[in-house]
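--- STAGE predict ---
source: upstream dedup step, 1 unique chain passed
mode: sequence only
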Amino acid sequence: MVLKEKIDKIVQEGDWEFAKLLKLNDVCRELSEEMYSKLSPSEILELIWETQYEEKQTLGMIITNHAKLQLKHEFINSFQKCFESATVQFKSPVKDESPDSPINIEQPPLPKSKKEEKPKKEKEMIKGEDGMDIPKGVKRV
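--- STAGE serialize ---
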């Protein structure tokens, strides 16, 4: 059952005295403390996950950012441990240019030659009455 449905059920099925409901804030605080003790961690997290906090961030955003930041620090610490025992040499590596080992470089295929296109038959053009060229056989309206 969803948390909101559980709350609605408690409110609707409860036997409430009017005098007690006049102090609604106290009644709701007591009910919330009682219900909180029965919630699982996932239900608590679901309840507050989308609540907006400072700078319009939800708890989900805050937890995600903090978890990523913590992971980043753990990676940095791990790298630093490796760096403490690392050695560095400032010598250039010697190139191995022995003629015994031929280098096989696969070359890409050559481009195909383009076939010469046959020139298209040019339509015979004639000058129209207005001086514009138009194809022969076309009539202006």
